[in-house]
Amino acid sequence: MSNIDDRIMSGDLIWVGDLDDYVDFGAINDEWSREEEARRRRADFDAIGELALFDGKAVSPGSLEQRGVEPGEWQWALRQAGTALNTYTSNQELEALLVRALLSLGRRYAIIRYARWEGVPIPSAQTASLPLGLKALLYQYLSGQGIRKPQQYNKQIEDVLQAAASLKGDTAYRRAGMVQSLLHEIARRDAEHATAQPLDREATRLILSLSRLHFSVAEIQLNSFTALSELSAAYSKARKAEETLSHSTSRRLIRNWRLRHLRPLTELFPIAIRYGLERGISHFGLNKELTRETALNELALAHCGVLLMRRTAYRYAAERTLRTSRE
Fold first, then answer.
1. Which of 13, 120, 226, 306 is exposed most, by the fewest CB atoms within 10 A?
2. Are residues 192 and 146 in contact, defined by beta-carbon separation less than 8 angstroms?
3. pTM as predicted
């Protein structure tokens, strides 16, 4: 029996005498189902309504649709935001919850991006981001450089780390410079290392990069958009000071190298979170009112941005795997 006969028997194809032809009711039903699904989807988007954001900005349901966010995904992101901003007794506490949630959401991505940018192992970068991680990495580095019993320098290490952490209005680059001075001092003081070769350049580059990451993570443990603004201002000031240094050839490479590292970790956050932080800084800079609705929308939008970023990464990975399998 042919495919047409099967469809006639199933009732999908019905003879209509006036048309002197068969009518495909299966195709009609499929088209009706697609139209009905489109109507439901449009109704779900319309139900979301315009989303108020910081600094007088807003996002329309159509904008969410264009970005590829489905209504169900938006509702899930909103529930995630509601969980993070669940308990507070004042607008100040709500702001602190929102800032911490946004920073926490972007931190993991920024650490991995920093590791790839700096060429350091991701596990080491994740270790450096922990409160006591840098200290452990310093012991490992010193042992690798032939320093005898690095634990004997425990007090010096703790003193420098505490002094670096307590610097106000300074950058992670400056704090890492204090660690660099400490390492060279330890190398000079170690009896066995006194006449040995200098510290390994690549190993030293890696530990200083991890030191910058450690302090970069520590300096974004913030509770307000005002504090974020102050952090950004500190880096802007440091960059301007670096740009005013001598323009001689011998200084240019050093200056450019420093400028490359004179940036807060938030600059490596997903773009959706960066935009949210910028809107928040502008909003609070103008002393505008904070509402729970706006806070929820901003955090939910950040969650959606991360979702879309991961979806794109998965798609690229799948396409790459497919291309590889065909080669």
1. 226
2. yes
3. 0.82
